[in-house]
Specification:
single chain; alpha+beta; 4-stranded antiparallel β-sheet; 4 helices; 4 strands; 32% helix
Length: 167
């Protein structure tokens, strides 16, 4: 299976370079020895336009296992990322990233890296309050949406759109 994962990831890299959506960044990580780690990608997702998220370019690590694409990758924002569907450690909670169909998982091997990143971008501005991973963010969104939006806007300033090396 590992060979299948590697082949698919090479194809994903080629496809993303050719069809990269505006503002998105996705590239394999570089190991300490300078080699490329095709199983760990460093990505950045632009905040959706006309939302409190819009001013940010959010770092996301995507880790692909040996059973990819049969199993979804693990996607994580930095620890402490403020969002109702992001665990305190940074892991994204999204049905698209789950293969357990009994629990509403929507992962399919045909999902591309671009589709995955766009799905996470959409999640930023349309959180699922019925499946919270972070109580504080979820409670604030429900109880005081204006204050929630202010917290999101403050977080966006920590991840500005203009960042070096965004090629």
């Amino acid at each position: 299976m590992a060979g299948m994962a590697d082949q698919r990831l090479l194809g994903e890299r080629k496809r993303f370079r050719k069809e990269r959506p505006y503002g998105f960044v996705a590239k394999p990580a570089t190991r300490a020895d300078g080699s490329v780690d095709m199983r760990r990608w460093q990505c950045r997702i632009p905040g959706p336009a006309k939302t409190a998220w819009a001013e940010g370019l959010y770092p996301l690590e995507v880790v692909f296992g040996d059973n990819y694409p049969s199993e979804p990758p693990v996607c994580s924002f930095p620890a402490g990322f403020f969002h109702p569907n992001v665990y305190p450690g940074g892991r994204v909670c999204l049905s698209l990233l789950s293969s357990d169909s009994d629990l509403g998982g929507q992962w399919a091997p045909s999902i591309t890296l671009t589709q995955l990143l766009k799905g996470i971008q959409e999640l930023l501005s349309t959180p699922n309050v019925y499946s919270p991973a972070q109580d504080a963010a979820c409670k604030l969104l429900k109880s005081d949406p204006a204050k929630y939006e202010k917290a999101v806007a403050a977080q966006a300033k920590r991840y500005p759109q203009e960042q070096p090396g965004d090629d």
